[in-house]
Protein 1
Amino acid sequence: MKVTVIGTGYVGLTTAVSMAYLEHDVTCVDVDETKIKQLDLGNMPFYEPGLKELIQLRQDYLRFVTPSREAVEHADVIFFAVGTPANSDGSPNLTYLFSAVAETLDFIRTKNSPTVLVNKSTVPVGTADQIDRKIKEVGLEDRVKVTSNPEFLRQGRAIQDTLYPDRIVVGGDEYSSKLLYELYAGIAEQSFQPPMQALRPVGYRGPEYIVVDRRSAELAKYAANAYLAMKISFINEIANVCDRVGADVTHVASIIGKDSRIGSSFLQAGIGYGGSCFPKDTRALRFIADTNGYDFKLLSAVIEVNQSQKLIMLEKLQDRLGELSGKQISVLGLSFKPGTDDLREAPSFPIIHALLSQGAKVRVHDPVAMDKAMSLLPESVHFAVSATEALFNADAALIVTEWPEYTSLDPKDVVSLMRRPLIIDGRNALQAANIHGLEYEGIGIGSKRNCEYANMH
Ligand SMILES: NC(=O)c1ccc[n+]([C@@H]2O[C@H](COP(=O)([O-])OP(=O)(O)OC[C@H]3O[C@@H](n4cnc5c(N)ncnc54)[C@H](O)[C@@H]3O)[C@@H](O)[C@H]2O)c1
Ligand SMILES: O=c1ccn([C@@H]2O[C@H](COP(=O)(O)OP(=O)(O)O[C@H]3O[C@H](CO)[C@@H](O)[C@H](O)[C@H]3O)[C@@H](O)[C@H]2O)c(=O)[nH]1
């Protein structure tokens, strides 16, 4: 099939490359000329494991272009994967989407064969209906259909999530859902060749293809993200209780996660969620509920807990060091999670700003996100070329992102490098072998793990 993907961000490129992997003929469109030029040269606009290699593998099925009639008019299916960032009131900004839709409708106005427009961007309920009205306004309703096809991939494992999804959700009419079923058939059949075979998650049972009305599909995307964010804020509150009563949240999470009604995922306590999705989408869902006359109290609490959780490391640091002025603090990890260089809503930023405002000297390190971070952080922040340099002579180190580089540090090296071997682990990521001999504190495990392990070794 001929497929056009509009927007070459995480979702657009992953959609494009998975369609190319299934041997569809794919055109990727972006308004950002530099990005298109770089993609054409094989350079990725962001770090996503496996993406570059897969694009190379399927280059015969892919082309990268700026918007034009030619890019869309032959497509059977046109995916929209443009950004929907938050406005200051939390509402999603749909400017990019509606501008891409208007331009596309203009380009395909004289086309005679059918086209299905597929929205992959995360949008408020009723957006596909609005697009439908625009299709009718230009008199294309007999040939052009619109569906909602929300995306559930995670950054850092985008390829795996796309080729091995739990579900493919389509909100639309019978014609569009049948066409998309054909388009996705290769994913349902799962007859992948190496190296993609190796990405198959253990126990994976194939995707469920779910066809619903457009509004339910649109809301399901926000509901999924809000639910996962709720699990994180819940376990973070349990962690805060653990710190006060001397329990260990990792044990509590493991015990409750063994109940199949609860499930063990997304119960990793720490400094809260960041990224381009959970913060934006929880605020958007609250806004959607609010503007429809419903006060979503639980979601407000989820958002509020996440806000305060980001700075919990600072409290722990002050308890140990007192005044932070003049102290040298090493911040390990800048991206919002490992496996990505995405800095959007990363907890590292409020943490660094809080440290600086208290007069601390800050050294940061991240294995992949330093280039992006340099223009975004104040000049007084020192960018260390390695974790070792970041730790040298530090009064304390904060593990903000649990990159393997940090969780595998040899504690003997840490002791010899730091002025005071104090580690505050914002992700509870260090194991016993890596904290021996260190002054260590996590989130909701207090110094308990330290004492237990110290006695054991
Ligand atoms: N990032 C994720 O992990 C993820 C996962 C699921 C869903 N989503 C949702 O998918 C959407 C896209 O997210 P993303 O992170 O991939 O976006 P992104 O911000 O990384 O990229 C969006 C791209 O769209 C391009 N663009 C904007 N207007 C355009 C136009 N008129 N024509 C062509 N290109 C245009 C931009 O130049 C940019 O390259 C958002 O709604 C997001 O909430 C994101
Ligand atoms: O137990 C956990 C799990 C995650 N996180 C944090 O939560 C954030 C988000 O993590 P993750 O969900 O892995 O990353 P995203 O790539 O943002 O993916 C989420 O957002 C996407 C965009 O909507 C969705 O498609 C995905 O299904 C959804 O998982 C990160 O800061 C993590 O550190 C925790 O603190 N504890």
Protein 2
Amino acid sequence: MNSEEVLEELLNVELQINEVQAEINVLLERQDNLYQRKSELQSLLELCKETEDSVSQGTGTSTNSENWSGSFKWDSEADDIKLNIFGISSYRANQREIVNAVMSGRDVLVIMAAGGGKSLCYQLPALLYDGIALVVSPLLSLIQDQVMGLAALGISASMLTSATSKEDEKFIYKNLEKGEGSMKILYVTPEKISKSKRFMSKLEKCYHAGRLSLIAIDEAHCCSQWGHDFRPDYKNLGILKTQFPNAPVIALTATATQRVQNDLVEMLRIPKYVKFVSTVNRPNLFYMVREKSSVSKVVIDQIAEFIQESYPNNESGIIYCFSRKECEQVAKELRVRGISADHYHADMDSVAREKVHMRWSNSRLQVIVGTVAFGMGINKPDVRFVIHHSLSKSMETYYQESGRAGRDGLPSECLLYYRPGDVPRQSSMVFYENSGLENLYGIVQYCQSRRQCRRSVFFRHFAEPLKDCNGMCDLCAVASEVKEVDVCSHARVIISMLQDVQKSNQKMTMLQLVDKLKAKHNDLVSDLRKEEIEQLIVQLLLDRVLKEEFQHTAYATNAYVSIGPLARQVLQGKKVVKIEISGKQKVTGVKSTRKSAAPSGLECKLDKLRKELASMDGGIFPHSVLSTQQISVLSAQKPTSLDQLETMIGKVKAEKYGDRILEEIDKWSIGQNPNASEEEQEEDENRTPKRPKTINTHVVIESSDEEA
Ligand SMILES: Nc1ncnc2c1ncn2[C@@H]1O[C@H](COP(=O)(O)OP(=O)(O)OP(=O)(O)O)[C@@H](O)[C@H]1O
Ligand SMILES: [Mg+2]
């Protein structure tokens, strides 16, 4: 061998070592994820055993043997506050048990889906206890919404943030230090705890005087860097338990992975916590994935048609887009099509952003078109649809984002537009994140699936026993012919093409690969549409037969497709690759019309009235006056006296708005039947059927997890 040959072989060996190292890295990452999954499955197994042993409570589970559903001495006072102050007639799953655990002085971890009603779990004990409850919440906008909502209920709540005036600060400090004033709940950002010594010293005085009733940490997943919204200042909140050991801590989050839970109880220093886990299931949400056209105008036309057909009464919605530019374009195109829409992203100044958010929160703007920047601060309960114009970056993010629909428990829809061609766009953004690609491929698998119930993917992801979907996803509601196509021969051709490319030191993007396949092997792929070839390549990525590689240019990061760790197995015939292709759709058992149940005349009137009352009441949110659910109840039951009204919306609201509400109902009833005598009207009312809740094509079982 001459030196040139040796050098060539040396380079070749080095190349192979690098390849092996890359495969080892992939395998190590996979092993890490499998260990993680193993621990989740072990917890799941225990949970399943508990459920089988019938120790579960409603749809949620408390991982402790104490009976939190029994009777407690504060029961009747709690019931009174719940109805007459909060206007809530019955507890949702786990709420009562959590209140009881907090009232018993225990540290509590609450994992409850978005919109599940976590706020009540600390606000109710805050009113039951003497003294002041401290609530840590990550965002100013969330805090402002909460304080405003509480003020509308006549509850004295304050906030201490960077935006608090000197005068308000003085009032708050007086309350803390001297117990002067009526403040019951104090909201702060985590920065106050970690950065303001003055605040901490006042809080210590409050605690030592026995006036710090409880500490609530809302959005507690922000403590963990494995969570999707890690906030460094949340890491310092452990100081609260150290300084105030006797004040019960209640940590609340909608995110349920085991890793995040472990992290946050450690950081908050609450080892003896009682855990309440409610299901991640959102039975009122209908999940669907639609094929996304490569022509952007077609996608916008479809979205506009969906909104106009299904939500003609200006019902609120969110559209998530990939980029800021896309947000602006989509919002503009929707406006051209007559839909009231505006964009929201991080490039806008905060005043403009807040303005859009407020118009939407007050239901003066129907659709907000946002990037992920439109996130945690969304408190609007009556969002009827969340559309993803592009993929989310993980199942978890998708769960969070789509979960902003239907927080009031009423039927709502989550629609995702998927096209395999969007995968490289998203992967080039996330590949450098911890498990970024792994997470992305999770949601891609959700989209590529043509058989598996969409809901079951969520259950699996959050390590929860499967539950019935009740036909509330596209794959369960509509049976379509799904063909499973063996694509091993396609895979072998693709691998050999990529081997050639690699030999000549070239790289190939997914789109280039599709074009080349069509040009050189049309006989092989002639039975597949372009989108299906893309789907095939993405499936090979998911199956690790191929892998993505990334390279930076001056302007962007490009994603290329190359040979993955399991390619050899396909070449050797040891691994079979299949894709699922949809045939014709058959509608089964559900109506094929896509019309939402129009609100009744009285519901429209009450909706208008709540907006009017809200603006008269210092510009609070209309849903703080009456929730959509309360409007449904009122128009079904049509109360005729303040006493009746009180049983439906509670004393505080009845006293504040009762006369106007009754007047409106009365006016409407007379308008409906002007000639009827009072008795006849009464009879008629008794006959009025409750409007069934329908969601476009399906009848929905309302709030199956409500306690009686
Ligand atoms: N028992 C109940 N009955 C009826 N409505 C309720 C009940 N509990 C809470 N709600 C309502 O449900 C909506 C969502 O409640 P809340 O804001 O507490 O949700 P959350 O669990 O904190 O959700 P997120 O994770 O999105 O912050 C609110 O409008 C609230 O008034
Ligand atoms: Mg909340």
